[in-house]
Structure formats: structure tokens, C-alpha cells
Amino acid sequence: MKLSFEKGIFAPLPVLIIGTYNADGTPNAMNAAWGGQVGMSQISVSLAGSHRTTDNIKLNREFTVAYATAEQIAACDYVGVVSGNNIENKLEKCGFTVTKSDKVNAPVIDQLPVTIECRVIDIQEEFNETRVVAEVVGLKADESVLTDGKVDYSKVGLVIYDTAAKCYRKVGESVAAARSVGKKFE
Ligand SMILES: Cc1cc2nc3c(=O)[nH]c(=O)nc-3n(C[C@H](O)[C@H](O)[C@H](O)COP(=O)(O)O)c2cc1C
Asked: Is the CB of residue 119 below 6 angstroms from any atom belonging to ligand 1?
């Protein structure tokens, strides 16, 4: 029997590390779970208006999104608990170094193997929430996570955010081929 609850909660969520440049050119990053794909080539992230990242995205109109990994989970969590508004050398403190993207005015975190490069299309503000829709204009991936020239997510060590247990969980093995296993019911 299924039980009924008052409030629904979306799960699982991704663990996205948003990289931006501050007004003085120093890098910043934050952890965001409220984000995802919108159509073929766009993404959307939902940010509190008070974050340094939100100001930086409004300023630069460009940012990066790296996927958090199990190996770097403490640093990925750290950028989600302290704000660049209060801590100047936030990235240095958790051991992240960056390389400037050649496609967007935003930092690529060296320690995270896969990063997408994003250009803002639209910013919608409602109460204290800022919804950013952006075009994905590029992707950077470490050679170490490629198989036959393509990103191989089984090598990345991806994590998801479990909104019920409030913990990070490692993404597991493939259970079936998509758009294929279901064909047996055709
Ligand atoms: C697991 C996790 C998920 C988070 N998801 C979001 C989110 O989707 N949107 C948001 O505005 N803040 C989110 N946060 C909070 C920000 O990452 C946090 O407030 C951060 O300090 C903001 O940094 P900044 O001010 O340097 O940009 C999340 C934090 C954690 C730990």
C-alpha cells in the first residue's frame, strides 16, 4: 500500500558546482542541486538572490557547471556551506585551483573532471529566487574520463544529492541500455 504525504520532494538531484568570476577577477564556486537540462542545449539553475554566484552571473552573464565527484566531495560540499561574500579565498581553502575557460568568462575547476560552459539566455527573478536559463556552449573533460573520445560517466565518480537523507550518493553501475531495453514490449 502507498502512503500519502503532504509535501512532495524531488529526488534525486544533481550536485552541480557553479564556477564564476567575482568583480575583481578572482574565482568563486557554489554547490547547486536545483538545476537541470531544459530542451536540447540549455540548462536552468535556481539560485538564492543573496549568493555571490548570483551577483557574478548577473555581472558576467557566463558561468561553468562542473559535476561533483566522490573523490572531491568534501571540497564540493564546502563551496555549498560558505559564501564568497564572507570568505575571500573560498576555493584556495578547499584545495580547488582553476583554469580560465577559453569559451566563457568563467573558471574551470582543475580537480573536477567534467565541466560545461554556459552563456546566460534569461534571468527570471521572483521574490528572493533567481532562475537562470543558459545555453551550453562547450564542455571540458579530462582525458582520464574518456572512452573512445567520448565522456564515459562510469569513470567520473558522479554523485547525486539525496534530498530525503540529505547526503551525497555515488552513481552506480548501468542497469540497462536506454531506448533499447524497453523495446522488448514493442
Ligand atoms: C547540497 C547543496 C545543494 C545546494 N543547492 C543550492 C541551490 O540549488 N540553489 C541555491 O541557491 N543554493 C544552494 N545551495 C547553497 C549554496 O551552495 C551556498 O549558500 C553557497 O554558500 C553560496 O555560495 P556563494 O555565496 O559564494 O555563491 C546548496 C548547498 C548544498 C550544500
From this structure: no
Task: Let me know if residue 2 belongs to a domain.
Answer: no
Q: Does the global pTM surpass 0.90?
A: yes
- What does the pLDDT look like over 48-73, one tens digit per residue? 999 999 999 999 999 999 999 999 99
Q: How far is the CA of 55 from the centre of ligand 1 (A)?
A: 13
How many domains does one find in the chain? 1
- Cβ proximity of 130 and 120 under 8 Å: no
Mention every residue, 6+ apart, whose C-beta is less than 8 A from residue 72: 111, 112
d(CA 11, CA 68): 17
DSSP 152-173: -GGGTTBEEEETTTTEEEE---
Task: Give dist(CA 13, CA 161) in Å, integer.
Answer: 5
Q: Which residues form the domain of 143?
A: 13-185
> Which residue owns the Cα nearest ligand 1 atom 30?
80
